[in-house]
Amino acid sequence: MKKTILITGGAGFIGSHLVRLFVNKYPNYKIVNLDKLTYAGNLENILDIENKKNYEFVKGDIVDSVFINELFLKYKFDGVIHLAAESHVDRSIANPMEFINTNILGTVNLLNAFRKICEKNISEKRFYHISTDEVYGSLGEEGLFTELTSYDPRSPYSASKASSDHLVRAYFHTYKIPIVISNCSNNYGGNQFPEKLIPLAINNIKNNKSIPIYGKGENVRDWLFVEDHTKAIDLIFHKGKNGETYNIGGNNEWKNIDLIYLLCKIMDKKLNRENGYSAKLITFVKDRAGHDLRYAIDSSKLQNELNWEPSLQFEEGLEKTVEWNLNNQKWINNVVSGDYEKYYEKQYKKR
Ligand code: NAD
Ligand code: TYD
Fold this sequence. Notes:
alpha/beta, binds nicotinamide-adenine-dinucleotide
């Protein structure tokens, strides 16, 4: 094997798409997928590659420093692509400590373990930290986040991700370990846990349940198809420059309410329902605390320097996502149980 790469969080939404891409595209890399399998991690996401020769799954917690140090000493990873995180803003509002532990302490544990194995062949190593545009805070009606925008996180989730970004950069400057960071906008696609807006709405429309829209639905997000994100990660991992940050975005801003109307139209068509049927399920509910108004990414650095661009039009990506959800009811039934049922009751029924 030419390289041994650790992908953390590879049983989650974006991580599973990334693991699949790397295992299939790089047969001469050994891909080690480390995941705690929280409510958001599901090995069913990557059943198709689990028996590949260049793939190994390790169950473990990035917060456990002893375990992490042993793992790094055993494999002496050439590269780390770090996605493991608590990732849902609403959960961070209800229970911030999990976010502090996994997103901050977990990241520092990985950095410390990586630093130890960097003593040899440092020039061939790389620690790639996957982050979010939410670290930049909230935009007004105008403007875009660039790599130079000051950090201004406003939820426990984004503050924990911002802290981890700062620590990754601090390790680059202080200990000279080779790092790269990317900050991406909202992803969508198959295998996304149905607590996030798009899969939650698809699932509710299908089951004739109300579609909860926070506030007036005027918040804006910049949506990117998950496989366009993983292609960008592949490029940045191989061609990005050490110490640099790259913004990744879809150039695809949507007000939540407009997105939901488009989704309802697609669902009516797919389910052979009368046009306008699903939109009747839209229900405006109490706003999210501290709800960021608008995120929008300027990804020109990535486009100009590494020649990346999003491949899918939004309507096409949304149709694919609807189809994935309609064709994978068993996957949804398996994840929408236990912890999720309790979470959903607490999050929405109190309103
Ligand atoms: P996800 O919640 O679907 O998956 C997270 C994965 O991390 C799960 O498999 C979970 O089991 C694992 N995990 C959680 N805590 C762990 C721990 N302590 N030890 C080991 N594994 C643990 O998240 P996602 O949407 O795939 O996001 C992946 C990464 O991308 C995150 O770092 C997130 O901040 C970032 N990101 C996400 C988006 C998005 O729109 N989803 C956008 C930009 C950046
Ligand atoms: P989400 O998918 O949670 O992503 P993020 O908060 O990381 O952007 O939410 C996307 C947008 O949809 C955000 O503005 C909050 C809103 N939203 C709702 O209106 N209703 C919901 O039930 C959820 C989960 C989100």
